Amino acid sequence: MPHAAPAHDHEHHSHGHSHGLVDDSIKRSRAGVRAVVVSLAVLGGAALVQTLIFALSGSVALLADLIHNFGDAATAFPLGIAFLLRSERAERGAGLFVVAAIFISACVAGVEAISRLVHPAPPTHLWALALAGAAGFVGNALAARVRTRAGRRLDSPALVADGHHARADAYVSLAVIASAAVVAIGLPIADPLIGLAITAVILRITWQSWRTVRGYDHHH
Predict the structure, then answer these.
(1) From CA 25, how far away is CA 93, in angstroms rounded?
(2) pTM of this prediction?
(3) Which of 170, 160, 176 is nearest to 213 (CA)?
(4) Which CATH architecture group holds 23-219?
(5) How far apart are alpha carbons 170 and 50 in whole angstroms?
(6) Per-residue pLDDT tens for 4-43?
(7) Residues 6+ apart with CB under 8 A from 98
(8) Are 65 and 136 in contact (CB under 8 A)?
(9) Residue 170 region, left (φ>0) first, then alpha (ψ -120 to 50), else beta?
(10) If we measure between CA atoms, which residue out of 100, 136, 103, 116 comes closest to residue 196?
């Protein structure tokens, strides 16, 4: 029995695609990739500055922040790939990856804070430490703005969740500055307590981001 004509196959293949939307999806893909690349560059720069200062001060609070920033920058890769593929499914997967990254970074911060309570080790070079916190804060605040704006404009919950992640890391960086100040006035015990408070903030943002990404299924 003869097969259907190739023309019919092509028609079937393109079914569900209106030709007017193809250009929009390419534009959206480019805008998404641009947002991801810009935030990756900003965060990468901040993380490098922090790495240099960590080598100097040996601060565990800064180490936790560094892990956050490198982890946050790494979420750019699955998100960028999802935008390049122009795949909603890949984007949703990237969103879940982002939520997992936020949760893991909260766990890292919590473990570091508890170990600091058990084995106090006040950091040195406090001015440098405060500067590292400032670099992390500025980098994350800029990345959060780029991602959240683009995510809302492109209706991408994964990018919005990533924006929440960067905002969480900005709080962590601010806490690094607070930690340096508190150690400077002679209260090293407050350093790990600040770390635990940061953990609570990041866990809350994990929950918000999870709801953002999960809401995508109901929204579409």
Answers:
(1) 18
(2) 0.73
(3) 160
(4) Up-down Bundle (1.20)
(5) 13
(6) 544 444 444 444 444 455 578 888 899 999 999 999 999 9
(7) 75, 78, 79, 158, 161, 162, 165, 209, 213
(8) yes
(9) alpha
(10) 116
